[in-house]
Amino acid sequence: MEFTVYLAGEIHSEWRNEVKEKAKDLRLPLSFVGPMENHERSDGIGEEILGKQPNNILRDEAASSINNLRTELLMKKADVVVALFGEKYKQWNTSMDASSAITLGKPLILIRPEELHHPLKELSNKATVTVTEVEQAVKVLSYLFEVE
User: Fold this and answer.
1) CB–CB of 63/53 below 8 Å?
2) Is the dihedral of CA 66, 21, 141, 11 positive or negative?
3) How far is 148 from 138, CA to CA, in rounded Å?
4) What is the CATH number of the domain that holds 127?
5) Is 49 a member of any domain?
């Protein structure tokens, strides 16, 4: 049995690689998908496909529609979603992705530091599992494959 994991959250740090490496070290049968991690490509994909837009708002809208399509399709195919809320970056996309996972009925592992407990309490309450560290999320994934 193999699961596909959608890794939702900010694209500026190496947290996805940490999850993938830890899963690989444990020989977990997981494949990973997620948002476009190349920030410039993600922001520019609308103009790349649709052509130059007349202003930054329409540039963002064009990119957003294509990125939302990617997210929706990959998340629908995923078996579980892991969403990281870090302390450094704005977390709007993570909030949207976590909410989408819940709406789609996808199991959601929410990673958030204790300092973000209060602002994320409602979302955490809707998540399947909430942890504070990447390593804990990987341990949850590992537990799925344990047999007696």
Assistant:
1) no
2) negative
3) 20
4) 3.40.50.450
5) no
Q: Is the pTM of this model over 0.85?
A: yes
Distant-in-sequence, close-in-space partners of 1: CB < 8 Å, separation ≥ 6 = 29, 145
Sheet containing 30-33: which strands, arranged edge to edge?
A: 30-33, 3-9, 80-84, 108-111, 129-131
Q: Please state the length of the chain.
A: 148
- Expressed as residue numbers, the domain containing 109 is 3-35+76-143
| Residue 14 buriedness (CB in 10 A; 0-12 / 13-18 / 19+) | exposed
Measured distance CA(46)–CA(84) in Å, rounded: 26
Give the chain's domain count.
1
pLDDT 10s digits, 4-58: 999 998 888 899 999 999 999 999 999 999 999 999 999 999 999 999 999 999 9
